[in-house]
Amino acid sequence: MSRAGLKSICLAACLAAGLGTAAAVQPDEVLKDPALEHRARAISAGLRCLVCQNQSIDDSDAPLAKDLRLIVRERLKAGDTDQGVEDYVVRRYGEFVLLRPVFGLHTVLLWASPLLAILLGGFGIWRLARRRTPAPERRLTASEEAEIAALLKRE
């Protein structure tokens, strides 16, 4: 294969790799004001698609995600702050819509569960290690010692 052909293949592979995470935002949704659009994208990146559940509304093609993107843009055009838009969506759909849950009294178990799992695992391993008693030292019987002594004398 020629160098030009190899370069073309490498270029195509690089371009294809860059297209892997294309956003689902449609051209008709994009705001004319770049600053507002940037704010909308930042807010949308933190909101969960309630249909897909593991994607942000920016990455989802679901109709509900499109509706949420439009709500975010409408609230921004109405003059809401970023936090105001997020609060509006949370009031309407609940805290599950946030990709990053808030830290509060009602979510302490969610945030503390990894630490609790590590501590409980470490405690369990510590208890298992302490429970094992070392095997008692085995002493040779008199007949075994006599047999060894006889073998040593023969050599």
Describe this structure in words.
The structure is a single chain. With 155 residues, the protein is mainly alpha-helical. The protein has six helices and no strands. 12% of the residues are buried.
What's the layout of helices and strands?
Layout: H1 3-18, H2 34-45, H3 63-77, H4 82-93, H5 108-131, H6 142-154
**Low-confidence parts lasting 5 or more residues at pLDDT below 50?**
17-22
Category by helix and strand content: mainly alpha
Number of helical regions: 6
Q: Using the coordinates shown, work out and report the CATH topology of the domain at 23-126.
A: Helicase, Ruva Protein, domain 3
List SSEs in N-to-C order: HHHHHH
Rg over C-alpha atoms, rounded to the nearest angstrom: 33 Å
CATH superfamily of the domain at 23-126: Cytochrome C biogenesis protein
Assigned CATH class of the domain at 23-126: Mainly Alpha
What proportion of the residues form beta strands (DSSP E)?
Answer: under 5%
Mean pLDDT: 82
According to DSSP, the number of beta strands is 0
